[in-house]
Amino acid sequence: MSLTNPFGDVEISDPQAMRALAHPVRLAILSFLQRNGPATATGLSAHVGATPSVTSWHLRHLAGFGLVTDADPDEVPGDRRQRWWKAVARGFSVRMGTDPDSQAAGRALGEQLMVTAQEQVAAWTAQVAPTLPPEWVLHAGVSNTTVPLTVDELADLAAKIDKLIAPYVHRAGADAPDGARKVRILRHYLPS
Fold first, then answer.
1. Residue 92's beta-bridge partner residues?
2. Confidence (pTM)
3. Most buried pick, 97, 103, 112, 180, via CB within 10 A?
4. CB atoms inside a 10 Å sphere around CB 10
5. pLDDT tens digits for range 77-91
6. Is 187 inside a domain boundary?
7. In this predicted structure, what is the pLDDT of residue 1?
8. With contact defined as beta carbons under 8 Å apart, do 45 and 127 qualify?
9. CB 53 within 8 A of CB 85
10. Which domain holds residue 70?
11. Structural domain tally of the chain?
12. How many angstroms separate the CA atoms of 70 and 83, rounded?
C-alpha cells in the first residue's frame, strides 16, 4: 500500500485486499473510521450492522491488509483498556492490474462501491437535502455529462480533478473557514 496520490489516500493494488474490501461490512467499517476517526469494535458495530465480535474479526482482517491500525493512546477518549482502531488514511484509491485476478477483484470492489454510493445518495436525498439552507441547495446535487475522451485524456482529466480537490482534502477541520460543511464528492468515470 502506498500514499502517493494527491489526497494522501491508500492506494490498493493487491487483488486480495480488493476482495477483502469488497465485503459490505468491511467497507462500512473503513468508511466510518475514515469519516469519524478512531472507534472500538463495540462502538462500530451499531454503525456497520454486525455484532462487536464480528466487527472485531473484520477489523483484524482489514489490519492484515494495512487499511486500519491501532489508534494512538492520545487519539482516544476515556478507557484505554479497550482496543481502538483507526483508518491509516482518510480515503483509498484502487489500481487494478491487467491480469484476470486483479481485474475480477477490482470489479467486485467497484460493484460494492457503486452499491454504497447509491445508498449514500439515497440517504443524503432523504435525510440531508430537505434540511439544507437555500444557498447550499443551489450548489448541491449531481450532474451527468458525457464527454468524448481518449484513455490518455481521461487519465489526464482525472489527475487534474484530483489536483484541484487535493488542497481542500488536506485542510484540517480547524483550518476550514466558518460555515464550512463536510461535502462528499462522488466521481464516476464510466467509459462506454
1. 10
2. 0.82
3. 112
4. 24
5. 776 678 999 999 888
6. no
7. 46
8. no
9. no
10. 10-175
11. 1
12. 7
Cα distance between residue 116 and residue 119, in whole Å: 5
Q: What are 112-144's pLDDT values in tens digits? A: 999 999 998 899 999 999 999 999 989 998 888
Chain centroid to CA 113: 9
d(CA 42, CA 84): 10
Cell of residue 93, nine digits: 484509491
Q: Residue 155 belongs to a domain with what CATH number?
A: 1.10.10.10
Which residues have a Cβ under 8 Å from the Cβ of 82 and sit 6 or more positions away? 40, 42
Q: Bridge partners of 69?
A: 86
90 located within any domain: yes
In a domain, 44, yes or no: yes
Q: What's the helix, strand, coil split of the chain in %, to 5? A: 55, 10, 40
Q: Is residue 1 part of a domain?
A: no
- For cell 460494492, what's the residue? 112
